[in-house]
Design a protein that fits this description.
Length: 140
């Protein structure tokens, strides 16, 4: 009996340690990040709406992701979209701290004092786009 309980506990710990941000949220988030980095809002509304749907499936733990993504759905221009991207990123990072980031990295822009999530590699700053595309550092 003890062996079975220990084996189940080890399996559960292994699942938690391997968890990461869900791809159904990450993929549209990264599309938004890249659109803003390219000074565009093309596809942002649809990507944000997709995040809302997927975050709601995760329950209370992802509620702030859903709420902030919903604000992005109604953003009217690139400035308002970028201003909502900060809180969306904060919510995603908070959730990621609980489940893990996988291969994703957290970046920081000192000019706007905001964090975001991106794929590993060169900094691609969504807050300033082409004006300061590579401004920032990877923090984790």
């Amino acid at each position: 009996m003890k062996v079975t309980v220990i084996a189940v506990a080890v399996l559960l710990v292994g699942v938690t340690a391997c968890a990461e941000l869900p791809e159904d949220i990450v993929a549209p988030y990264l599309r938004i990040q890249l659109a803003l980095a390219n000074d565009s809002t093309n596809g942002v509304t649809d990507a944000a709406a997709s995040i809302v749907v997927e975050a709601k499936k995760l329950g209370d733990a992802a509620n702030m992701i859903a709420v902030t993504a919903q604000s992005m759905v109604t953003a009217i221009d690139i400035e308002s979209t970028r201003s909502v991207f900060g809180p969306l990123s904060d919510a995603l990072i908070k959730y990621g701290e609980d489940v893990g980031f996988g291969e994703l990295k957290v970046a920081y822009c000192p000019m706007v004092q905001k964090f975001w999530v991106q794929e590993d590699g060169d900094i691609i700053n969504p807050f300033y786009g082409s004006a300061m595309l590579n401004c920032g550092t990877l923090t984790r």
